[in-house]
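Entry 14. Ran structure prediction on the chain below.
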Amino acid sequence: MKAKTLAIAITTAMTSPMIWAEVTPADLPSMIVSADFRPNDAHDTPVSLTTIDKDTIDSRGAQHIEDVLNLAPNVNVSSGASRGQYFQIRGIGERSEFQAPLNPSVGLYIDGIDFSRSGGAATLFDIESVEVLRGPQGTRYGANGMAGTINLKSTEPTNDLKMKFESTLATYNTHAEGIAVGGPLIENTLLGRFSVHSYKSDGFMDNDFLGRDNTQNRDEITARGHLKWLATDDLTIDLNVLHLNIDNGYDAFTLDNSRNSLSDQPGKDAQNTNAFALKADYRANDKVQLQSNLSYSKSNLEYSYDDDWSYKSQFDAGLDPYSGFDQYKRKRENTALEFRALSNENGRIFADTTDWTLGVYVSKQRQNLDRTYYENVLTSDAVTGYVTKNSYETVNTALYGQLDTALTDKLTLISGLRAEYWEADYKDSAGLSDEPDDLMFGGKLGLEYAINEDHMAFTTLSRGYKAGGINVEPRISDDLRSFDTESLWNLEAGLKSFWLDGDLITSLTAFYTRRSNAQIKNSISVPKTSGPGTDFVDYFVNAEKVRNIGLEAELDWFINEKYRVIASLGLLDAKLEDYENPELLEEGIKLSGRRIAHAPAYQFNLGGEYYFAPGWTFKANMEGKDEFYYSNSHNAKSHSYVLYNASIEYKKDEWKVTLWGRNLFDKDYYTRGFYFGIDPSKSYAEETYTQYGDPRVVGLTLSYDY
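Output, structure tokens:
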């Protein structure tokens, strides 16, 4: 009844006659981004990037980054958990992590803390902006930025007292409450901001066997703190702290591809994290700026699921069914230290033409995994199982530098280089061990041309890289045991422009990427070690060549005082070249010339804002993407889809009420898919099984922002 009432309310708001009034929308400040070593206006940064501000986050009722990523062209997300936690940019990125340790292609940073292996951490309360940088960021981020980087930046403390309170009620028994307080602790010397947010929802699955509607629930607590010490006029020290307590359920897959589960042992997708970043910015003199960042995070994670998606007595014993449960418990510790020196206004070199940056970076990451698996073959009532353990430790040491040289008043040459030494140590309880190491290089060479004050063109040749690794599954052959470091070259050209006296802002980027020794995840189905059905055996191989070609376009147009249009388009042609999997060829699956997994050929967003009366704003958008393969190991695909979202907002002084809805027409779409045999009633025939994306969700948010 609540869902129906809210749906009727938002539909009425969308279709009711609008009141015409002369309204000037609030001036939007330029978005300052940290895409390069020096903060810069987004439109003056020679990188293909999308910025998502807090107003956009609020208008969508967004709790996690997965709720806003469709706004960024050529960015996809993979779930297979309670949330989408694995990101792909321009068709490059991981889709899951099981036994084998993960070396990410897409970096995820929250206030300077590296969460590239833990995408569930990207909650959005009190986040000021999200930056999505597409293309290799080899000079600044190294191995974590081969495909691109996602940065989340929380709201900064100021010298003014700031308070925010927010409360949300939504369908599926969703409710959230958050509070943030910031201001001077010591006037003009010590500033602080602290926030805490709780989000709870039953989720979007019904477990018919257990009679519950919350086995895929979301229970997430985020606490942030930021202290800014203005020690002197020349020295600023920032301390960011983050606590996450995520206790989500995982019960997403069903034998009939519905939202009605029959599992008797629902899993979990949980994370408990404590982290901090300590940053210093010191203006040593008018020639040199010194910066440092020390970050640390410690996380306990659990990922578990009902391996048979069913209950023990569901099938006839003659079908030889089984009952299984799989659990992965990880402990992660990440420590990173970075020192950087930058030129100031009088520190430029080469006849005062060149700004310079030099830096050193050291990180140590440690992960311990305990995997517990057991199954019960019902015909014999025999219980079998095993516990496996592994540890994975990496140390990265990097030196980097960048020169920004003004060749003329309008033309700037950007040259960057990073050398990174990577070493790893892997051990597991099966006796497998390895200590790989590698010296990797990345960087960029680019030109930025200010055509005039309204138009900036750029072109960049950049190199990204990612370390190799080890395939830990014991059932694969020895010749597949390890895979090599991957590298890529990316050539792109772009144009960023202001039109119509700044009312229309556009950006356009075309790119060509050539990947060498591309790390391609494969999987094969093998009989279970005991009992019926099949197991997945995942492993990485190196494909000699993969090429990605595409385009990204974005538009932001204030047509007049009442109307604003926002649009984006991503086109992508990402294909495997000269690679075949012999086992798949026997099944008639040819990979050469085929699009790689999770790389839709197009993505788009078209939306608008209507300021129809004092304090009132109506926003709506449509966002969609093309079909894509779920894996490089079978032919199962998602379908193309379009989602419609809208909100109506009323703001009076410090108070704001927002009625919002996502996926208003309740479109079925999928965020993860597998192809294998699991259903004993079909003699374990191989079929496609999918995880649904979020259905229609409608909510009401009340906020006070002082």
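The two ends are 35 Å apart (CA to CA). Will compare against last week's run tomorrow.
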